[in-house]
Amino acid sequence: MSAHRLPRTLRLDPSDTFVFAEAAEPGEWAVTGSFLFLDSDPAELTGKARAAFRSGFAGVRSLGFSTLVVVSEASEAERTEAVETLARHILERFGAPNLAAARGAAEEEIAVAASLCNLPVGSVVAMHRTVDGGEIHESFRTLHQRAPGADPLHARAFHFVETDEEGPEEEADLVGMVRGSEPRR
C-alpha cells in the first residue's frame, strides 16, 4: 500500500464561513480549484466570489472553499476516492462529456494538488490567485509557526490564565477606555 501526500482543508477559526459563500468542511481533500473560475471574468467578481477566486482552495467533497490546506498522508484508497468524487462533480456539475473524461480531468487536478505536498506532513499552505494576460496564475506559500517570543511586535494581544481563585471578576470597558470614560466595576 503506497502512501501519497495530498492537501486537506484546514479551518483554524470560523472566518472561512464568513469570507466564502460556501466554506469547505475541515478535513476535506482539496484541490486548487481554479477550474471553478474558467467560465467567469475574474475582473467582474465581487465580494465572496472574489475572495474565493483570490485565495480559495476547493474541497473535493463540497466544492466549498478553504483559505488554508495542510499537507496530509493519504492512502491509495483515499486518493482514488478523491479522484472519483471530483470526477462526479466534473461530470454532473460541469458537463464533462462522459465519466472517463471527467476522471481524466479529476486525475489532473489531484496531481496538481499532490505536487504542492512536497513538504513535511503538517505543513500549512496558502494560495494567491491572479489573472495576467487572460491567464490564471497561482502562487503558494508555506506558513510556519513562530517560536514563542520570537516576534514581540506580533505577539498575542491577550494571554489567558486559568485560576482557582474565587472573587470578583474584573471587567474592562475597552470602548470606554478609548473614549476616556471611567472603567466599570
What does this structure look like?
There is one protein chain. With 185 residues, the protein is an alpha+beta fold. It has one domain (4-143). Helix content is 29%, strand content 21%. It has five helices and seven strands; from the N terminus they run βαβαβββααββα. The chain has helices at 15-19, 47-55, 76-92, 99-115, 174-179, and strands spanning 4-10, 30-31, 57-59, 65-66, 68-74, 124-132, 135-143. The protein has a four-stranded antiparallel β-sheet with strand order 1-5-6-7. Helix 3 packs across helix 4 (99-115). It starts with a strand and ends in a 6-residue tail after the last helix. The model is unreliable at 157-161 (pLDDT under 50). Residues 164-185 are annotated as: Disordered. Residues 164-173 have a biased composition (Acidic residues).
Beta-strand residue fraction: 15-25%
Radius of gyration equals 21 Å
Give the termini separation.
64 Å
Largest beta-sheet details = 4 strands, antiparallel
Overall structural class, as computed from helix and strand content, comes to: alpha+beta
Instruction: Tell me the overall shape.
Output: globular
Q: What count of structural domains?
A: 1
Helix fraction by DSSP (H/I, runs of at least 4)? 25-40%
Alpha plus pi helix count: 5
> What is the N-to-C succession of helices and strands?
EHEHEEEHHEEH
Mean pLDDT: 85
Number of strand elements: 7
Low-confidence residue ranges: 157-161
Order of strands across the widest beta sheet? 1-5-6-7
Region (Disordered): 164-185
Biased composition (Acidic residues): 164-173
